[in-house]
């Protein structure tokens, strides 16, 4: 998984909860927490963070993923508007990932 996804999770957790909450999730998930936006990381690390968030925020894991996706997409569009110049919907955007982000 690309580091930008981890960076977005970091940002939305800090914005809506706190820096302490992000640190708690990293510690609970036993994940280092230093992600570069262009780096690639094992999906397992994200799943550990989702599980930690599920426990800490008292939300089912699927609700954590929906919460994150709803908040991350606008941030991603703000940072990388070129990725969103053609796609009109989230589904359209997702269908372009292999061509744009994972060439």
Strand portion, in percent? Answer: under 5%
Overall mean pLDDT score? 90
Low-confidence stretches: none
Cα(first) to Cα(last) distance is: 14 Å
Rg, please? 14 Å
Q: How many helices? A: 5
Please report the total strand number as a whole number.
Answer: 0
Looking at the overall shape, the CATH architecture is Alpha-Beta Complex
- Which series of helices and strands comes N to C? HHHHH
The CATH class designation is: Alpha Beta
What's the CATH H-level superfamily name?
A: H-NOX domain
Structural class, by secondary structure, is mainly alpha
Provide the helix percentage: 55-70%
How many separate structural domains?
Answer: 1
Question: What name does the CATH topology carry?
Answer: H-NOX domain
Brief overview:
By secondary structure, the chain is mainly α. Helix content is 68%, strand content 0%.
Structure description:
It is a single chain. This protein has 103 residues and is mainly α. The protein has one domain (3-100): H-NOX domain, CATH 3.90.1520. The chain has five helices and no strands. The protein has helices at residues 3-16, 19-29, 43-57, 61-79, 90-100. The relative contact order is 0.14.
Q: How are the SSEs placed, and which strands pair?
A:
Blueprint: H1 3-16, H2 19-29, H3 43-57, H4 61-79, H5 90-100
């Amino acid at each position: 998984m690309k580091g930008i996804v981890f960076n977005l999770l970091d940002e939305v957790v800090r914005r809506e909860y706190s820096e302490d909450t992000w640190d708690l999730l990293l510690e609970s998930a036993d994940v280092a927490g230093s992600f570069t936006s262009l780096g690639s990381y094992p999906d397992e690390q994200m799943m550990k963070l989702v599980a930690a968030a599920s426990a800490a925020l008292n939300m089912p894991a699927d609700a954590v993923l929906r919460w994150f996706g709803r908040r991350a997409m606008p941030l991603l569009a703000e940072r990388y508007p070129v990725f969103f110049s053609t796609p009109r919907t989230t589904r359209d955007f997702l269908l372009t990932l292999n061509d744009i982000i994972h060439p």
